[in-house]
Amino acid sequence: MPQPLPEALIAELTAILGERFTQNPVICAQHGHDESHFPDAPPQGVAFLTHRDEAVAVVRACSRHRVPMIPFGAGSSLEGHVLAPQGGIALDVTGMNRILAIEPENLLAVVEPGVTRTQLNGTLKDTGLFFPIDPGADATLGGMTATRASGTNAVRYGTMRENVLAIEAVLADGTLIRTGTKARKSSAGYDLTRLLVGSEGTLALFTAITVRLHPLPEAIAAAVCPFRTIGEAVHTVIEAIQLGIPLARVEFLDERAMAAINRYSHTHYPVAPTLFFEFHGSASAVAEQVAAIQELASGHGGTQFLWADKPEERTELWTARHKAYFACLALRPGCRGITTDVCVPIARLAEALLEARQLIDASGLLAPILGHVGDGNFHTLILIDPNNPEEVARAEALNEAIVATALRLEGTCTGEHGIGLGKRHFLRREMGEEAMSVMRAIKAALDPHHLFNPGKIVDENSRELFSPNIL
Amino acid sequence: MPQPLPEALIAELTAILGERFTQNPVICAQHGHDESHFPDAPPQGVAFLTHRDEAVAVVRACSRHRVPMIPFGAGSSLEGHVLAPQGGIALDVTGMNRILAIEPENLLAVVEPGVTRTQLNGTLKDTGLFFPIDPGADATLGGMTATRASGTNAVRYGTMRENVLAIEAVLADGTLIRTGTKARKSSAGYDLTRLLVGSEGTLALFTAITVRLHPLPEAIAAAVCPFRTIGEAVHTVIEAIQLGIPLARVEFLDERAMAAINRYSHTHYPVAPTLFFEFHGSASAVAEQVAAIQELASGHGGTQFLWADKPEERTELWTARHKAYFACLALRPGCRGITTDVCVPIARLAEALLEARQLIDASGLLAPILGHVGDGNFHTLILIDPNNPEEVARAEALNEAIVATALRLEGTCTGEHGIGLGKRHFLRREMGEEAMSVMRAIKAALDPHHLFNPGKIVDENSRELFSPNIL
């Protein structure tokens, strides 16, 4: 158990935020919970921030008192990022949700970290531009930046790594930094922007994020195509990527995931290994991409393209896909999900997926497969009863085995969900002790007292840090 | 003057490398010189490395003796990156030029740092793939990674930031790390790959680099189009980018640069503000892009498209463009160039360029303008007599003024050349003291004795570090 919060800190936070600082147990409980299967771990207080200046003042106060701080957005993390196993203060940025600038002529926007992707895209509606990164959940841009999120569009538009131009952030000592400019490229010193993208709240609290926007395509086509086998579906994708066909989205769902979304979203797709495609471009470019994909797919037995031509049909299709996570969870009421997130070099994708499927079948667990296969990234959603230790252990063994396969195939343990609490040992295995030491040295250089989101990514044994002894 | 090299270090390096370690003054002088205007600053010795294991052993030896190390590739830096103003050992990696793996099916290659881009593309010839980053000079991949290079193709294919998947590198203490995998995306911890990309030899010596490859386009078209004014040319580019026309290359040269290349490359282009275009895609996609650009250009008075349809015509066109740097230098025999490298948000490009032109004209200096304008990045090549202090001072004032304009327009002081020796004060102005402190903290965490390329990027006063007192 963490020490109680210092009374002096409570007084300071109350002076800064008034009622927007709270220790209300219900609100704390809401902030000790995300979409992962980890046990809830509430913070000791929640600071609802509405402005950069407040963020700086709150971080300074927590820093002086050596109290942990956990940035909190939509709470849609799948890896326990927002949990507070060492106590401390959740820094809730959902009230920092102003869009600070939209510059259509520069193809960029500047947003506060609590802005969500649908909020941003809603605001962009009349500009002819959009923000493409789409992890499914209506996450905040702050959270997406922190986890280096990607999702369905990344195969064409890149991930947050490619789409964040600059970050304004508060460091652990309360210093405010800006990491970049509005220029599209730069060779100006160490890439602090990319260092903060994916830092999972462990290095800084973001107060503003400059993101790239993209012109809306002139034409869009979307289709669903079932295959006889997983291998046939995946080989279609591998060949499309190798040929450089500029797919905007290509999503794989196995027959179990398809059955789940049919049931959950009342759709009637064939229950088979399936690819969801989207094509962006001029009308003729889209027609050309479609023809190329149809040829590739038919070479692998995928002939039954179900087209979604109208915008509302496309919305239905992608809504069904986006709800796949909850659709799978609904296969087993009361369950929680352990989501694997490996990503492999594209040519190894079929091997990785088929091996994952064999491992699932051997485990006896229910675990639909779905993923952003154009990037070599796929998820298995292992449905478990969190109160059944034997089942949890079996699921963790399955997770381990799938990650071991991905590492053997020269891939990564996480394509987009991040390390959080649950993948720290995978990270060590993937990077090696030497690179882990570099990450730890960076953490120590920027946050020497381990105040930002302790226990995540690099911290495996930092519970003792939240102790008055260190003061 | 630095201390003489310790005899023990000389003995150790000789034991490791034999004759491939040398203190021959001619060879040292060759390694104290690049394409910048800075005075030569030779290292005290040169270590010609041929293998990772040697690299580790040499770094360990230099580290033990606290002697600076300066990674050295093609020597094509424009910012003094390879100079050794504090002495030390140049780590010449041109002998580490093996292509370790080409995996066409995974769209990647693994190379040693001394491999040059033309060497890599030569090896790829029969694969249907290419490595797009093209800074003009036949730089090494190690040097390109170190400066976060980009060049003519970056508008379509990104910079080294987007095209390096993973790096193997030796840290200052001789530890070998690997920063990533062969997966195309990852959320696995801090982005050490992007931290090393652009680190200019100040954090680590690269021993292997995994880069992305891209499918050769089915069709390529290239053209040169003159305009009546700089503004008309640049507005054509701005609109093309805003519309999302996927230009593969779009280069601007002002009439002075065009006159220089005509003279140097015996070409006969109109002497006018000119855009060089290249279009990649399927035949119909290229035709569509060409039509779209012609329409935009003609709206701005650019109607005279000179097409290079045959491969040899395209080669001539791009060779002329690539030689523009030397062509401009040849305008004034015996001169050196001070190259500005600002990059601004795309909508501010016309303003930045026209202001640069006014500043040049007011300075009385000869300074052709050219650049990768699709990224908002352009260069002025200020031709100076390095022995004329008044002229050098005037050129530096012009450089300052052009950078000040770019920063005012929310751009960066360097789009692709890096900071090196000459832009350290610009970096401080661009980033602010707070972000500079973060860079310094990272440098101190990874290279506490300032052994890697001291005096560059973050080190403004580290000469004293190369002193036996610190041992």
Task: Explain what this protein looks like in three dimensions.
Two copies of one chain form a homodimer. With 471 residues, the first copy, chain A, is α+β, with helices and mostly antiparallel strands. The first copy, chain A, folds into four domains: 7-94, Uridine Diphospho-n-acetylenolpyruvylglucosamine Reductase, domain 2 (2-Layer Sandwich), CATH 3.30.43.10; 99-215, Uridine Diphospho-n-acetylenolpyruvylglucosamine Reductase, domain 3 (2-Layer Sandwich); 219-326, Alpha-Beta Plaits (2-Layer Sandwich); 332-445, Alpha-Beta Plaits (2-Layer Sandwich), CATH 3.30.70. In chain A, 37% of the residues lie in helices and 18% in strands. Chain A is built from 16 helices and 18 strands. The first copy, chain A, has helices at residues 7-17, 25-30, 52-64, 117-123, 141-146, 154-157, 160-163, 192-196, 230-243, 255-265, 283-299, 311-322, 324-329, 349-363, 389-408, 424-446; strands spanning 21-22, 45-48, 69-72, 89-92, 99-103, 108-111, 129-130, 164-170, 176-178, 205-212, 214-215, 219-226, 247-253, 274-281, 306-308, 336-339, 369-371, 379-384. In chain A, the strands form four sheets. A seven-stranded antiparallel beta sheet of chain A has the order 15-12-14-13-17-18-16, with helices on both faces. Chain A has a five-stranded antiparallel beta sheet with strand order 5-6-10-8-9. The first copy, chain A, has a four-stranded mixed beta sheet with strand order 1-2-4-3. The longest helix of chain A has 23 residues, at 424-446. Chain A starts with 6 loop residues before the first helix and ends in a 25-residue tail after the last helix. The interface between A and B is large, with 95 and 94 residues.
